[in-house]
Write a structure and sequence with these properties.
Length: 197
């Protein structure tokens, strides 16, 4: 019960900080202040004043930071997979709503389909999590420092950027994207290579 309370409390604190800072809307204090007995709301005068104890904010931010530092591959998979899945969700909804898209060659296939495609979304989630998250975590944060050093001097940064643009992008990043696209749009790997070249 205490664990449930703490996770709800931390989630509500993150929401309070975000929404108070962006002035998107006023959070109700009843949502933010929960007691430990039955998770019943307690009425307070100001949502931000009562919710944002310095210790609570520090603990929440510290827990998030600790997760990203101690589990870089898992956090990369979750973050990039969620972003890719959300982007595909928006793209499918925009296509279903009949909004025109300028890239007709591949989108035309999707316009015929009115239902949300879970398998397509799963493919985006896996591509985002496995390649954009985990593989790029390995490449940029583990291999690049070994290959090029950790210096931020102009020559080192220029070497890293050049290697990324001239080697990684044309020979790794784009082919993987075209192969995943072939799986999603159901055409052959040969056609994927042909579209790439």
């Amino acid at each position: 019960m205490l664990r449930k309370y703490l996770s709800l409390r931390n989630a509500s604190l993150v929401a309070a900080v975000f929404f108070e800072q962006t002035n998107a809307f006023q959070m109700k204090s009843a949502f933010l202040h929960m007691n430990t007995r039955g998770l019943h709301p307690q009425k307070k005068s100001s949502s931000l004043q009562m919710a944002l104890d310095a210790d609570d904010v520090t603990n929440t931010v510290s827990a998030i930071s600790n997760f990203y530092e101690t589990s870089p591959f898992l956090s990369a998979f979750l973050t990039c997979g969620a972003k890719a899945s959300a982007a595909d969700f928006v793209a499918q909804k925009r296509t279903d709503d009949g909004e025109e898209n300028k890239v007709v060659s591949d989108i035309a296939i999707l316009k015929e389909k009115k239902n949300f495609e879970g398998s397509r979304n799963l493919a985006f989630l896996l591509y985002g999590g496995l390649y954009q998250g985990m593989a790029q975590e390995l490449i940029y944060n583990h291999f690049f420092p070994i290959w090029f050093g950790q210096s931020t001097e102009l020559s080192t940064v220029a070497t890293k950027v050049s290697f990324d643009m001239l080697i990684l992008t044309p020979f790794l990043c784009l082919p993987i994207a075209y192969f995943v696209k072939a799986i999603i749009f159901r055409y052959s790997m040969g056609e994927a290579l042909e579209r790439y070249w």
